Amino acid sequence: MFLIKQPSVKSHVLNYELCPPLDLMHDLDSYSAYYDPLYYPHYHPEIFSTPENFCAWLQASLSFHGDVCGSCRPLYKSTAVIYDGSALCVHVDDTSMMLACSHFESPLYSHCSVFHRHASFHIAATSSPGAHHVSAASCMAAHVDDDPGWFTYPDDCVRSHLLALSAPILSSAMRPLCQRRSLVPCNKNNCIDFIMRHFSAHKTQLSVLMPDDFLDHLTSTVVPFGCPRTRVSILAAKFQNLYSEQVASALRAPPDVVGVYDVPTVLSAASVSISMPWLTVSLDDLTRRLEKLSRAEIQLCLHRLPSTF
Predict the structure, then answer these.
(1) What backbone torsions phi and psi does residue 81 show, to the nearest 5 degrees?
(2) What are the tens digits of pLDDT across the range 59-111?
(3) Together in a domain, 116 and 155
């Protein structure tokens, strides 16, 4: 199964004629609006069985929702959904958003959350009225207000980094999370299992929050002095406060890059790189050149960046 979808707990109001008769046998297909896959995923296992099926269903559902929802209708023209092997990339018009699979598994997920997040990106990217080109600063501002790349790291990667920590560090990090001391796991593997379940539940809960709700929910979270209060920095501070600096760093650590290189090849590549003139160009000059690109070109580039950035 590709996704383990939890039934939605969001309010779902339908006209009377769209609801099935009470206590009478009926055909599920005749009441498709009522038996929405978000609310009755167990009746639609084929949708959540493969990435291809889920992407096709989500793309069609987002398009339909955008046409009928009063608050989302003016926010978009087209949608597309792609699975890149670790996360889902949702394209709304010329904006791309990387969302972890757990974002859609959550019972708090709603299609509105996708469109309202797109709206916040669009406002940041078009902060200069009448501008035909997006600035590097505004494009990066939209990027850092998405969920961080480490929200999408596979469980095997997270577990391997936690295994590198000592048992006392893991036990100390999770002890405050247990309501009763008797619930504290007694060995390292149990500590890791507990932290991973706790981390997965919290990142899913936070990932589906609308921008305003997100800031209200984490208003007491303090970020380091001089650090802007973006979604990325607030989430990093939140999980560091929860688990300690060592455990939070392990959760954010990117997957290991596996490769075999011989020294002469590396030195040769370094020699070629040093001769590249763009490496000596000032940051201001690079920024001015980026500002000449269209918004679509810069956002496409950001989408192609590895999730570790």
Answers:
(1) -130, 130
(2) 999 988 888 887 787 666 678 899 988 788 888 877 778 788 888 988 888 89
(3) no
Q: Are strands 88-92 and 95-99 parallel, antiparallel or unpaired?
A: antiparallel
- Residue 244, C-beta contacts closer than 8 angstroms, at least 6 positions apart: 169, 172, 173
pTM of the prediction?
0.57
Kindly state whether residues 166 and 84 are assigned to the same domain. Answer: no
The tally of domains found in the chain comes to: 2
Range of the structural domain that residue 199 is part of: 151-252
pLDDT tens profile 8-19: 988 888 888 999
- Give ∠ CA 299-154-150 in degrees, rounded to 5: 45
267 CB burial (10 A radius; 0-12, 13-18, 19+): exposed
Domain-terminating residue out of 131, 162, 177: 131
